[in-house]
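Appendix B, record 7
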Amino acid sequence: MIEKKISSLEELTNEVNELNKLIQSSKGHEYQVLATLLFRGQSNAEWNLDTTLERYTDKKFSVFTYDGVLESIYPATASLTGKEWPVDFRGFNQSNDFFSSPPNYSFMVYARHHGFPTPLLDWSQSLYVALFFAFQNADPQKDVAIFSYIEYLGGGKAGWVGAPQISAIGPYVASHKRHFIQQGQYTVCVKHDKSNNWIYCPHSEVLATSNDSTSDILYKFIMPGEIKNEILQRLNEMNINAYSLYASEEGLMESLAFKELVLRNH
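Structure tokens (predicted):
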């Protein structure tokens, strides 16, 4: 992971432009699919890149076991919401050699958006959405962090068998409308255990030790919380605020509070 201290939005966008140039320069031929630059904002620069599942419990889950958790909550969720998802709980094949997305991914994304702990780490394809989430509840006395992740450069990823691996999944999944409003995408980290079962594991097992310059490239841009109102005002001018990103009455009230109580008296 590469850390950089950034003092302004202009400086940050310049850094991001350079990362986009780096991705484009890795293109070997016209039809090559390039990785998408992903962003994540956190209101405290000291926080780790933890999933909601990791923050909720220390228990480790296999992909198979966690799929059983989803199966357990599905009847109540479907009954009380009146919604259905294309689920298949017949069991994840632990012998699969390639891991592209978790089983019952669309239902997992829905659960994640409504507060249920999942092994998904959520990102946005928009730098400005990530900035909003970093500064929305930031303490002006503390630094915030904007993470920028490149899954791979060039033709794809490589790694040794049994090592933990991060996969970027989505964004094309039928889920809550906030997934699309926030330009959401997700990563998941898995590895094989001694019994050759897929196990969800922390992203830090890859990112903290990665010295590869062609995959799992992570930048951490640290910005001062004291510029919170300046950043939120500029984002609001782009129509990026709590109402536009949450599409809820609570988000509307938060947006109006910022407009009337902060900006009007700025």
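Remarks on this record: The longest strand covers residues 143-152. The CA atoms of residues 86 and 104 lie 7 Å apart.
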